[in-house]
Amino acid sequence: MAQKLVVGNWKLNGSLAANEALIGACGALAGVEMAVCVPFPYLAQAASLLAGVALGAQTVSEFQSGAYTGEVSAEMLAEMGCRYVIVGHSERRALFGEDDAAVGRKAQSVLRAELVPIVCVGESLAEREAGRVMEVVGRQLDAVLASVGVQGLSGVVIAYEPVWAIGTGRAAGADEAQEVHAAIRRWLADHGAPKGIRILYGGSVKADNAATLFAMPDVDGGLIGGASLVAQDFMAICRAAIANGDD
Ligand code: 13P
Q1: Could you tell me the domains of the chain?
Q2: Is 161 a catalytic residue?
Q3: Any atom of ligand 1 within 6 Å of the Cβ of 8
Q4: Distance between CA atoms of 138 and 140, rounded to whole angstroms?
Q5: How far is CA 30 from the centre of its chain?
Q6: What is the pLDDT of residue 23?
Q7: Is 89 known to be catalytic?
Q8: How far is the CA of 224 from the centre of ligand 1 (A)?
Q9: pLDDT tens-digit profile of 14-52?
Q10: What is the tens place of the pLDDT at every residue in 70-101?
Q11: pTM for this predicted structure
Q12: Among candidates 226, 246, 247, which has minimal Cα distance to 237?
């Protein structure tokens, strides 16, 4: 796990012109793995423009094919050149009714297509204030384990994204993030998962706080929303990941 992984989540943003400019200004750097998760219609464009930066999608159907109007399968994403697929983002959970079991099934569908699910977990502010962080995160992880099995966990990236930190400008403190990442690491060990599973932090990661977050021993990279839309910010975050890599 020498290199950190920094993933941009563009969310519902972009245009052909804006994407071309953004990707053009976000070249691959040595010493960090970089990826961008773009809206479905732009996968082909991004695949043609990216060089040394992996492509990803932001959600996926749990189904492979059939009468599921509007859905996109993991196999289709693989064919378009994706390596990563975000599943269970808190916006999908809160706004589109994805429950823990559905997130588990989506993670399994991504593995079935030999892609890497980036499984998002995290608590709301009310849950944090009630001292329920690992109860919530553990429940979210249990559902993924139930679908993918212990072997499947080895192919997963986990993203800890506290809901209260997403898009708010209020990132978790580095110590707060580290505490949960270490607890997730313990959860993985307790459930027999192989070592080396990456745990990313997401939620208001910016150029000016990335280095302190990435310096934490159990923070293996970042899932970046707003700052991934600004080339110089995303590149600064990637450089912070290089500087705080394991070797
Ligand atoms: P922000 O970086 O905009 O807070 O978004 C984080 C996120 O949701 C990444 O998936």
Answers
A1: 4-229 (3.20.20.70)
A2: yes
A3: no
A4: 5
A5: 20
A6: 98
A7: yes
A8: 5
A9: 999 999 999 999 999 999 999 999 999 999 999 999 999
A10: 999 999 999 999 999 999 999 999 999 999 99
A11: 0.97
A12: 226
